[in-house]
Design goal:
The protein is of the alpha+beta class and about 100 residues long. About 20% of the residues lie in helices and about 15% in strands.
Length: about 100
């Protein structure tokens, strides 16, 4: 898709692009300890990249997450924390 000055992209085209390639250096870590499935994190996410279906099932699609931290801020039970991206990579390697 070619984008020119003043162009408006067609709806849904952001899913064709890996927009998470630039980041703040932080990523949300969902602790899955106190989640009440209120869905505030998903509703507040400006990138629309948080998914879940019930208590302790929410996660962020890191292909699109920019690390803004809004999900962490709006979580009423503090079940999301922002961590340096390296910590998530280490946890994934350790199987946590």
């Amino acid at each position: 898709m070619k984008i020119t000055m003043g162009c408006v992209a067609q709806p849904g085209t952001s899913q064709n692009n890996n927009t998470g390639s630039w980041r703040t250096g932080l990523k949300p870590r969902f602790l899955h300890l106190r989640c009440t499935a209120c869905d505030l994190c998903s509703l507040a996410c400006p990138d629309g990249c948080i998914y879940g279906n019930g208590n302790n099932t929410y996660f962020a699609d890191l292909k699109f997450c920019k690390g803004c931290g809004i999900c962490c801020t709006v979580c009423p039970v503090n079940d999301i924390e922002m961590v340096p991206e390296e910590m998530l990579l280490e946890a994934a390697a350790e199987g946590k």
